[in-house]
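Readers of this paper often ask what the protein records in our data store actually look like. Such a record has a labelled line for the sequence and another for the backbone structure tokens. Nothing more is needed to write down the fold, since each code stands for a local backbone conformation. The record that follows is passed on verbatim for readers who wish to inspect the format.
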Amino acid sequence: MTLIKSISGIRGTIGGKTGDNLTPVDAVKFASAYGTWLKQHSGKEKLTVVIGRDARISGPMIHNLVQNTLVGLGINIIDLGLSTTPTVEVAVPLEKADGGIILTASHNPKQWNALKLLNEKGEFLSGADGAKILEIAEAEAFDFSDVDNLGEVTVNDAYMDIHIDEVLNLPLVDAEAVKKAGFKVVVDGVNSSGGIIIPRLLEQMGVEVVELYCEPNGHFPHNPEPLKEHLTDICELVVKEKADFGIVVDPDVDRLAFISEDGEMFGEEYTLVACADYVLSKTPGNTVSNMSSSRALRDITEKHNGSYEASAVGEVNVVTLMKQNNAIIGGEGNGGIIYPELHYGRDSLVGVALFLTYLAENNIKSVAALRASYPQYYMSKNKIELTPQIDVDAILKGMEAKYANEEVSTVDGVKIDFAEEWVHLRKSNTEPIIRIYTEAQTQQKADALAERIIKEIKEVAGI
């Protein structure tokens, strides 16, 4: 069991000892730190924070603790109840709120929960702001309000529908074209809030929906990370139902994966590629993803005469670079679509609506054939566990020097771009681990590159 404190929030397992897990005491402590920082940061007399949660079993408990802590600081709350990460991100600016908190551990199993923290734009906090909150939490420098100045709670359970309306109003989303196409889609909502909002969006677009694990009871029927090995049931059901494709989201609905009509994975990396292909065909421009994402996005961007840039890993880093480069779409290779036309956050609803419109407008009958039409890349993801005595930074510098004649980036670890493949080496912030991501034009080449690099790392480390 563990408690992870980072600039983006606090994440941990429920129960156990204070400071080692996400206990009620820890939830109150970090909610207090966020509220205290918000008061210092804004300088306003009265603040408002939007709060929503996914369907985790621990959600109501953590929700009540966090909400009432902020009330105790004199902060007003707009309580969305059961919601999604992108829904809260959309709600913050619409409500002219000063911040937001999403209570979700994203793709982690059911024993986990977390506080994801947003600024007044509905975007994740900067590294500097997150670090300040951790300092406040460590010092426990809290000053709560007296009885006459407590915050008030306003419940607004309409925001899933408002979010859907915002998506349907996007210029590149055409619900009428989708309705005429007559799609049939299977949805795996992993028994969280995606099981409510994705079918509701699809029905408003005239799509026939087959629901799988769409009861938001928090009992995840499989590992909630949308990877191939966890998605056997929907892959089989898509074929059995003769559906056009399948949709899988994680518990907080910011990651999106598609299943082709043949029951095979479309590929999380290619969710962003397909959506970008459609968006760039209508509105040419630039794109951004992180350094561990597929080169296929670069290829598609250049096909549409745009410019592609890669950021350090992490949504806040992707968003920062998107703003700098005026990117019109971006995201992460884990199925996260960021479409600034609506907001700067990963949003599965935006991805689903753009993808469906793309299929409908281009009369695409086979999702598998669409996938086959894109540049073919294959990834290998590995890690090396080292002893605490080994200097991981020195190893990365050694690898950087070894490949000095190649295209090397040290923005985030060491990324080495070869002519037809790449490798990205990153160290863990919490363990003596080096993560190794490789991509090549066949799985065998990606695996072989990873094996070669692992061997070279061990040679540099002297192990």
